[in-house]
Q: What sequence folds into this?
């Protein structure tokens, strides 16, 4: 995927979240930190993103640990956001380290999702969305909508994470067959 | 005053949690509230906005907590009542339209269920089938790639509990009038069938329907049931079940010829049952069958004719009639070049292919079952995706030695939405610019989604000679190859 379609995909996700905000962390993708949780998560997410861009595994794990388990719902919003962020991360070891660190700080159900994400395992609707992004396939809007419908906040928190994942170098390499 | 409510190790979905959060915050007298999982960060936020209290320290990440700042005791009580009401309401509402994701869940919801249809990949199928049998369910095992040892274990265990294991690799059954997997819309009646063959079962049951008869039950056993390793366990069990079934008056057994000992056991059981029984052991010796007073069928079509005759109180005769007159065969033969001598049977149904090969006999003819493993690696069965067979119809027609192409067209549930339309396209291409006979039959009924008559018309319109059954097609193809004159 070239940089222009990468920007486009990120923009499509952003537009969706702008039109369908949630009570969790979707506002972060729009550059805002509203409500109770986003102001707590925003600076911690920034630390994580810097560590990921620098390829610093231990710093990234520490940052993930600090932001896990934050937000409403059975799977706290920050965990869903992390799952989304990991989905396109090209460095699997880094992804696993982040997932494992976060999993230790949250509820069992959420931890299971995080560990699965670290291993590259996702719901089929998410895999369909990732295929749209990686291979520039049609149906991106529909795929986003299906993922957004997960849970109450979870789907849109996931999309917010995915948005940051795209910005931070996700889709740089061809993942064909890796999920 | 701070109300803290904790549900230890509670699992409520996010939608419920959101509703609780919203409703509680909206209650008069609530100054602030937080609902969430008790993770470190969430508890820290609760403390930070003034909802902390001593109880909070004992909350863990897997607990659901609700912290609310209430103006007085009444509000406090109202909040607690509201939460209780919302949590129990969700529990009731979710039962009605739940789609259970486990076997235990399904059986809790519908305890009367007694049959499981399993179509998992083979390596998972055994464990699930065993689980179902342990729960007292009959099993239809659509999955293939189940080992013979696993099959033997499942069937021995099932037989000890008098449960059916239809399969593995069982594609066809009709239970209480409901077609399962690849099956046809066959009217109900008094003919009960036990079949170790998928398209064999479809052909016989469809022809029974066309001849005015009907099916009480059609049980599948999987193709290996009558092999020595398994010993015909399920054919015996199925046979006994239909002998006991008051709605079944006539029995039909369909299989490849079993090993001698197994055949004897099955035939003895059938003879002892006292119900008129038609046995179609394709290509097998009829002596053992006739000795026991049972009726041996010479083809799948013949099995259907005999079963319907018995069901209607008539004495069955071997059916080898020809629906088209000899002039049509002669006319077809006259169009062929001297080099055109052989038949090509291009089939989607395995049993139909074996039957055609058997009935054709002779040398130089070729029959291909496109459902064979060699043709289905990485692609669906040809009854679902007929494209490979269709391509072959066109390419075989270009062979100057080929006189007749024989083809099946299996309609019904599970099959391609329009196999006749696809085959018709191939037939048109095959006949383009050259004389070649295409003889076909449609396996199915008028009630099938694709419709028998419509499918037949599509093939006829494309130039095929369409006959009422597979055996019939082969007889007619032989006439053409013999120059249009019977030489039997």
A:
């Amino acid at each position: 995927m070239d940089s222009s379609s990468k920007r486009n995909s990120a923009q499509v996700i952003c537009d969706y979240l702008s039109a369908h905000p949630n009570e969790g962390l979707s506002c972060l993708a729009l550059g805002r930190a509203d409500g109770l949780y986003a102001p707590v998560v925003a600076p911690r997410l920034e630390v994580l993103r810097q560590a990921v861009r620098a390829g610093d595994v231990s710093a990234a794990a520490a940052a993930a640990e600090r932001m896990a388990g934050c937000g409403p719902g059975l799977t706290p919003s920050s965990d869903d956001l992390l799952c989304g962020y990991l989905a396109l991360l090209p460095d699997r070891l880094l992804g696993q380290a982040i997932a494992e660190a976060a999993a230790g700080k949250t509820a069992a159900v959420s931890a299971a999702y995080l560990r699965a994400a670290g291993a590259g395992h996702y719901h089929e609707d998410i895999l369909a969305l990732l295929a749209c992004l990686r291979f520039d396939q049609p149906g991106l809007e529909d795929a986003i909508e299906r993922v957004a419908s997960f849970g109450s906040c979870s789907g849109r928190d996931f999309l917010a994470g995915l948005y940051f994942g795209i910005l931070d170098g996700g889709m740089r390499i061809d993942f064909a067959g890796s999920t | 005053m701070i109300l803290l409510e904790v549900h230890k190790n509670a699992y409520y979905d996010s939608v419920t949690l959101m509703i609780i959060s919203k409703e509680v915050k909206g209650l008069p007298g609530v100054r602030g509230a937080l609902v969430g999982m008790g993770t470190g960060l969430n508890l820290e936020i609760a403390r930070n906005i003034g909802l902390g209290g001593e109880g909070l320290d004992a909350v863990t990440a897997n607990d659901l907590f609700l912290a609310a700042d209430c103006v007085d005791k009444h509000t406090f009580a109202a909040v607690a009542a509201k939460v209780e009401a919302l949590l129990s309401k969700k529990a009731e509402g979710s039962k009605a339209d739940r789609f259970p994701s486990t076997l235990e869940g399904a059986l809790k919801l519908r305890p009367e269920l007694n049959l499981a249809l399993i179509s998992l990949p083979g390596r998972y199928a055994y464990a699930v089938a065993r689980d179902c049998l342990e729960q007292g369910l009959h099993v239809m095992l659509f999955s293939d790639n189940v080992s013979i040892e696993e099959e033997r274990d499942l069937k021995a265990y099932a037989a000890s509990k008098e449960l059916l294991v239809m399969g593995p690799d069982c594609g066809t059954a009709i239970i209480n009038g409901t077609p399962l997997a690849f099956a046809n819309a066959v009217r109900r009646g008094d003919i009960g069938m036990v079949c170790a063959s998928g398209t064999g079962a479809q052909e016989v049951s469809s022809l029974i329907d066309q001849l005015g008869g009907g099916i009480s039950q059609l049980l599948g056993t999987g193709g290996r049931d009558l092999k020595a390793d398994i010993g015909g366990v399920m054919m015996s069990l199925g046979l006994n079940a239909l002998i006991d079934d008051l709605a079944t008056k006539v029995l039909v057994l369909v299989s490849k010829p079993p090993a001698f000992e197994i055949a004897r056991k099955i035939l003895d059981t059938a003879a002892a049952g006292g119900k008129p029984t038609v046995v179609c052991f394709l290509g097998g010796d009829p002596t053992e069958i006739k000795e026991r007073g049972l009726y041996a069928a010479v083809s799948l079509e013949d099995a259907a004719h005999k079963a319907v005759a018995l069901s209607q109180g008539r004495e069955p005769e071997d059916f080898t009639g020809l629906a088209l007159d000899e002039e049509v065969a002669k006319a077809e033969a006259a169009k062929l070049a001297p080099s055109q001598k052989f038949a090509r049977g291009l089939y989607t149904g395995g049993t139909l292919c074996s039957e055609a090969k058997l009935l054709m006999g002779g040398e130089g003819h070729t029959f291909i079952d496109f459902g064979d493993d060699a043709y289905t690696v990485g692609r669906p069965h040809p009854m679902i995706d007929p494209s490979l067979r269709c391509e072959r119809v066109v390419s075989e027609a270009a062979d100057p030695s080929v006189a007749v192409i024989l083809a099946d067209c299996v309609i019904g549930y599970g099959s391609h939405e329009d196999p006749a339309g696809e085959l018709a396209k191939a037939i048109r291409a095959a006949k383009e610019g050259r004389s070649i006979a295409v003889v076909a039959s449609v396996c199915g009924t008028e009630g099938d989604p694709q419709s028998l008559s419509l499918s037949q018309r599509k093939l006829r319109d494309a130039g095929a000679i369409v006959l009422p059954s597979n055996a019939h097609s082969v007889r007619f193809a032989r006439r053409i190859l013999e120059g249009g004159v019977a030489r039997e």
